[in-house]
């Protein structure tokens, strides 16, 4: 058994396709297949069910693959020890970030981070929470920027700050006359929310204390299901009702639109924004540098806020 064989094994599990796995390992498919067959012969077990499309690991294969990931991660730490002796950070940092954070948080820190660490290549992908966790588990991302807690044993959470929810209200709505809103005043029939799959949607419904299905009933003739907070804002402005937004999204808002923003009454409903990594994560110095840069870039009013009333995701 060799590390190369374990790399091929993990690659096939990640991509569930021998040709794709071979491409990502920079070898031919026959070479990869031959090495995996030799590994199966040495172990005396079948690792993959090749009769299925896409290919799937066998039950014993799942256990061996999980252990292979641990072995490969520990082997990579040897290289990381050497790299950590260098004064200058370098390499690639693959970051996954949820859509309700990306357009508001990334611009706050990315320029200063790249200027401070010019030899680091940052690759950012906008993904939903489940996709980020899956890619972390398959080593296709180094770190995620999302909302916690996740209660996932394979993931380590590094809280960054606590961001408040605010309401964005059509000027003709009754709540537009309120200085601050009580969650009990929210009517789901007047509330525009994101599509299923967004953790922000779940938190909005939990603020309303009603984790129920939300359709477009009660909104006249318009049935609009959006994956964008910016789209929901435009609907509120041009139609009616209200939506909830994360605090960072209103920081640079022009004055005429800021008039439509209403805070909640104390205690403020908050969401916990964190860096998340796999339990056996690598690139620790890069991730520590990213963590410091993000915290420094967030406004002090948010950075200094204590954990109070974090809204559940589920």
Automatic annotation (TrEMBL):
<keyword id="KW-0238">DNA-binding</keyword>
<feature type="domain" description="HTH lysR-type">
    <location>
        <begin position="1"/>
        <end position="58"/>
    </location>
</feature>
<dbReference type="InterPro" id="IPR036390">
    <property type="entry name" value="WH_DNA-bd_sf"/>
</dbReference>
<dbReference type="GO" id="GO:0003677">
    <property type="term" value="F:DNA binding"/>
</dbReference>
<keyword id="KW-0804">Transcription</keyword>
<protein>
    <submittedName>
        <fullName>Hydrogen peroxide-inducible genes activator</fullName>
    </submittedName>
</protein>
<dbReference type="InterPro" id="IPR005119">
    <property type="entry name" value="LysR_subst-bd"/>
</dbReference>
<dbReference type="InterPro" id="IPR036388">
    <property type="entry name" value="WH-like_DNA-bd_sf"/>
</dbReference>
<dbReference type="GO" id="GO:0032993">
    <property type="term" value="C:protein-DNA complex"/>
</dbReference>
<keyword id="KW-0010">Activator</keyword>
<dbReference type="GO" id="GO:0003700">
    <property type="term" value="F:DNA-binding transcription factor activity"/>
</dbReference>
<dbReference type="Pfam" id="PF00126">
    <property type="entry name" value="HTH_1"/>
</dbReference>
<comment type="similarity">
    <text>Belongs to the LysR transcriptional regulatory family.</text>
</comment>
<keyword id="KW-0805">Transcription regulation</keyword>
<dbReference type="InterPro" id="IPR000847">
    <property type="entry name" value="LysR_HTH_N"/>
</dbReference>
<dbReference type="Pfam" id="PF03466">
    <property type="entry name" value="LysR_substrate"/>
</dbReference>
């Amino acid at each position: 058994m060799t590390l190369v064989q374990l790399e091929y094994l993990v690659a096939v599990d990640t991509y569930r396709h021998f040709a794709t796995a071979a491409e990502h390992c920079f070898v031919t498919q026959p070479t990869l297949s031959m090495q995996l067959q030799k590994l199966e012969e040495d172990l005396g077990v079948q690792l993959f069910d090749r009769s299925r499309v896409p290919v799937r690991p066998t039950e014993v294969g799942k256990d061996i693959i999980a252990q292979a990931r641990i072995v490969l991660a520990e082997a990579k730490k040897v290289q990381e020890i050497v790299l950590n002796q260098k004064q200058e950070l370098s390499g690639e940092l693959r970051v996954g970030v949820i859509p309700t954070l990306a357009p508001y948080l990334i611009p706050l820190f990315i320029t200063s981070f790249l200027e401070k660490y010019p030899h680091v290549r940052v690759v950012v992908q906008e993904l939903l929470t489940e996709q980020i966790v899956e890619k972390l588990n398959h080593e296709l991302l180094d770190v995620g920027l999302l909302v916690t807690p996740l209660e996932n044993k394979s993931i380590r959470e590094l809280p960054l700050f606590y961001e408040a929810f605010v309401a964005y209200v059509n000027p003709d709505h009754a709540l537009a006359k309120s200085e601050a809103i009580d969650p009990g005043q929210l009517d789901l029939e007047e509330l525009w929310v994101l599509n299923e799959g967004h953790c922000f949607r779940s938190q909005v419904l939990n603020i309303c204390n009603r984790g129920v299905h939300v359709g477009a009933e009660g909104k006249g003739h318009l049935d609009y299901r959006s994956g964008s907070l910016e789209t929901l804002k435009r609907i509120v402005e041009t139609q009616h009702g209200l939506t909830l937004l994360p605090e960072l999204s209103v920081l640079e808002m022009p004055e005429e639109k800021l008039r439509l923003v209403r805070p909640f009454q104390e205690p403020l409903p908050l969401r916990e924004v964190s860096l998340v990594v796999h339990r056996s994560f690598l690139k620790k110095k890069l991730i520590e540098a990213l963590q410091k840069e993000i915290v420094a870039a967030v406004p002090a009013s948010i950075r200094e806020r204590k954990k109070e009333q974090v809204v559940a995701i589920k």
